[in-house]
Amino acid sequence: MDIKKLQSLVVDALEDVKAQDIALFDTTHLTSLFDRIAIASGTSNRQTKALAASVRDKVKAAGGDVYGMEGEDTGEWVLVDLGDMIVHIMQAPIRAYYRLEELWGDKPVKVGAAKRKSTDEGEEAAKPKKISSHMAAGKKEAEVKPVIEKKTPARKAAAAKPAAVKKPAAKKAAAVPAGKTIKVGKTKSAVAAAEVLKALPPKRKVAKPKADEAPVKTVIKRIKKVEE
C-alpha cells in the first residue's frame, strides 16, 4: 500500500475514536525498517485499546497488512505494526516519560496533509459544475449592481438645558406723598398683647413716707427721749 494512503488511513482511524495530540513523523532518514511513525494519546486503558482496534480494522478493510499488536493487556502503551508504519498509542503520563518525539521527530509530517486521501491513478479531478445561463446572468447583474450604503442618522444634539426660572420681582413700596401719613393696622400679636394687659389687675399705689417719718429720724428722736 502507498505510504501516503496508509498514513491517511491511520490518522482517520485515530480521529474516529477521538485520539489526542496526533503526531506523524518521517523516519526514512533514520532507519530502513519503517518510513513513518505515528504517536497519539488516549485518556484511559479502554480508549487506547479502542484506538488500536480502530487502526487495525481500518487498515485491514482497505487491503493493508497488520503484522502485529503489542500492549493490549495493560492498555498503557499499545503498538500497532503496519510494516512501513508504526503506530504508538499511549496514555499521557507514559508519553511524557518516554518522549518518543525527541527520538523520531526530526521530520514532522503535517496531519492535515496526511489526512488527504490520495486519488487512484487515472481518476480525474472533480470538475466545477456548470452554471445555467439564467443563473449566470443573475450573478452578473448582482455583481454589476452597485451597493447603496445606508446612511445612519446623525446623532441628535444634546437637549438644551431648561432656561432658568425667573423669580417674581418684589413689589415696590408705593411712594407716600409729602405731608400725608399712612395708618398701619395693628397686627394680630399686638392686639392679643393689648387684651392681656387689660385683663391684668390695676397696680396698687404705695404712699411715700413723709420726710419727718423717715425711719432714721424716728430712731434718733427716741434715743434723745431716753437720754433725757
From TrEMBL:
<feature type="compositionally biased region" description="Basic and acidic residues">
    <location>
        <begin position="117"/>
        <end position="127"/>
    </location>
</feature>
<dbReference type="Pfam" id="PF02410">
    <property type="entry name" value="RsfS"/>
</dbReference>
<feature type="region of interest" description="Disordered">
    <location>
        <begin position="153"/>
        <end position="172"/>
    </location>
</feature>
<protein>
    <recommendedName>
        <fullName>Ribosomal silencing factor RsfS</fullName>
    </recommendedName>
</protein>
<keyword id="KW-0810">Translation regulation</keyword>
<keyword id="KW-0963">Cytoplasm</keyword>
<keyword id="KW-0678">Repressor</keyword>
<feature type="compositionally biased region" description="Low complexity">
    <location>
        <begin position="155"/>
        <end position="172"/>
    </location>
</feature>
<comment type="subunit">
    <text>Interacts with ribosomal protein uL14 (rplN).</text>
</comment>
<comment type="function">
    <text>Functions as a ribosomal silencing factor. Interacts with ribosomal protein uL14 (rplN), blocking formation of intersubunit bridge B8. Prevents association of the 30S and 50S ribosomal subunits and the formation of functional ribosomes, thus repressing translation.</text>
</comment>
<comment type="similarity">
    <text>Belongs to the Iojap/RsfS family.</text>
</comment>
<dbReference type="InterPro" id="IPR004394">
    <property type="entry name" value="Iojap/RsfS/C7orf30"/>
</dbReference>
<feature type="region of interest" description="Disordered">
    <location>
        <begin position="113"/>
        <end position="143"/>
    </location>
</feature>
<dbReference type="InterPro" id="IPR043519">
    <property type="entry name" value="NT_sf"/>
</dbReference>
